[in-house]
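=== RUN LOG ===
request id: a7f3
mode: sequence -> structure
chains: 1
length: 172
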Amino acid sequence: MVDRLTPERRSWNMSRIRSKDTKPEIIVRSLLHRMGFRFRINPKKLPGRPDIVLPKYRAAVFVHGCFWHRHEGCRFAYTPKSRSEFWQAKFEANKRRDKDARERLREMGWRVVVLWECDINADPVAAVQKLAVLLSPQDSAYQYPMPGRRELLKVAEDRLQRKFGGQRDKQT
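=== RESULT ===
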């Protein structure tokens, strides 16, 4: 199957895929902060550089994209039709690296939680509530009313816009 995009356009598209500060990550971080949890982002000293680390609870949270990390049974975890051998090898390497990072963190005494992009997009409050209960059931009571899904998506978009400016959607 031939790619419908020019190599330059495909390269530009791929360059826009972020490894950190993604919309699902920002949503999770916003909700955790509103719930009173304090955390660190992408610490270099921990294996796999977890997206969110809650040192008080010795918990590492990975916010995985369904496509790149192969969420089992998810409709977003499809394999592209072109260069399928390349993609299979890439996905297998990603899964192996993820598993290795989780195992190393557990060996170091950390609790590891994986949140999937599709779950966060479907119901962000429920995803973060599950995380809060896993971390500390007695501390997970809300102090503030939780925002709705649209408000959360708006907050994430605003933060991404401030951080990356107009370059995120425009080809330069």
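=== NOTES ===
The CA atoms of residues 60 and 112 lie 5 Å apart.
Strands lie at 40-41, 52-54, 59-64, 111-116.
=== END ===
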